[in-house]
Amino acid sequence: MHPIRGTSDDGVQRVQQLDLAALAPGTLHLLRLHLGQDGLGRAIRAPVLVARGRKPGPTIGLTAAVHGNELNGIPVIHRVMERLDPHTLRGTVVGVAVVNVPGLLLRQRRFADGVDLNHVFPGKSDGTPAQVYVHAFVQRLLPSLDRLLDLHTASFGRVNSLYVRANMDDPVARRMALLQRPEIIVHNPPADQTLRGTAAAHGIPAITVEIGNPHRIHGDYVRRTISGVRAVLADQGLIRGRRKPAESTTAMPVVCERSHWLRTDVGGLLEVLPKVTDTVQKGDELARVRDEFGRLRHVYTAPEDGVVIGRSVDPVAPMGTRYIHLGIRAAPDRFRAVEEA
User: Fold this and answer.
1) Residue 252 has what DSSP assignment?
2) Residues 89 and 55 sit within 8 Å (Cβ to Cβ)
3) What CATH number has the domain spanning 260-329?
4) In a 3-state reduction of DSSP, which class is residue 293?
5) Domain-by-domain residue ranges, the chain?
6) CATH classification for the domain delimited by 4-252, as one of 3.40.50.720, 3.40.630.10, 3.30.70.3490, 3.90.550.10
7) Where are the alpha helices (DSSP H) in the chain?
8) Among 59, 96, 157, 218, which one has the highest count of C-beta atoms within 10 angstroms of its own C-beta?
9) Measured in Å, how far apart are the chain's first and last C-alpha atoms?
């Protein structure tokens, strides 16, 4: 079956499979990739932008909105792609502006069947609706990529720093992470059933970029992420330019050996004290929980030294609520620094 299934009235090609060889070089292609059908039998198609250079080179993938309420990656992809010149590009950039199309349209984090897509990769051809959807995505797009940057944000009720999750023991992923110049990097070998983990299983070095807060466009973090993505493209030889972002964003990130969420063990009205990127020491006060009469029920303190990667901003906190994502700094010599150009 030829991958080009037709062209819509707005000039966007409908495809069943990402076939880069079928796309003319020196052109920006707008595609709708078929990934499944909804409950009325209508096609579900993901928007894909492909800048195919005239000259050979690697293929870099950018994905956004694996969670339907995580929007900051969408303008990152749009603005990165609109700045590329396919006539001078060496290689190909593939941008999937929205992976979880049903979730975005429903204005929710999860897929239409209530499942978190990033917990069911690589999916199954004969599984649940979410599993079938991600299986189609993996089979029809992922093999075309040499590198992947998966763009996320915090979830509802939380805020994030600009941070990256990467396997810092993998030199390619480590370099991509450091070139982003985020506020924080967390060493995090790719987990099974995530898009990043599935990419790694296919031999595709990948990082996850967490771009601030959900269901909004976080302008400063979007601009910094665009700069970081372009630094990766320059480093891989696709474009000319800096191998690192502009000077205003070159401060070295805090690198964490690990991270974990702290949770409440009582319910009530939550107040979280530190801001994202704040450094805390063991014993520092982190959060307070009060009952419906305003009486203090519990004060939470830091169990160890660390840095605040993310935090809850939802004051209504049942028992077990995540309230701070705490990163534990790595030893200075734990990860070899990225080679500077």
Assistant:
1) P
2) yes
3) 2.40.50.100
4) coil
5) 4-252, 260-329
6) 3.40.630.10
7) 73-82, 101-105, 129-140, 171-179, 195-201, 219-235
8) 96
9) 44
Q: Is 281 exposed, middle or buried (0-12, 13-18, 19+ CB in 10 A)?
A: exposed
Token couple for 287: 């959060």
Residues 63-91: b if buried by 16+ CB within 10 A, e if exposed: bbbbbbbbbbbbbbbbebbeebebeebbb
**73-82 helix and 219-235 helix, angle to the nearest 10 degrees:** 50
**Which residue reads 């990043």 in tokens?**
196
Q: How far is residue 276 from each of residues 210, 235, 294, 331, measured CA to CA in Å?
A: 13, 29, 26, 21
The two counts, helices (H) then strands (E), for the chain are 6, 19
Tens of pLDDT, residue by residue over 167-198, are 999 999 999 999 999 999 999 998 779 999 99
Find how far residue 200's CA is from the centre of its chain: 15
> What are 93-107's pLDDT values in tens digits?
999 999 999 999 999
Pairing of strands 43-52, 55-64: unpaired
**What are the tens digits of pLDDT across the range 9-62?**
578 999 999 999 999 999 999 999 999 999 999 999 999 999 999 999 999 999
Mean pLDDT of the chain: 92
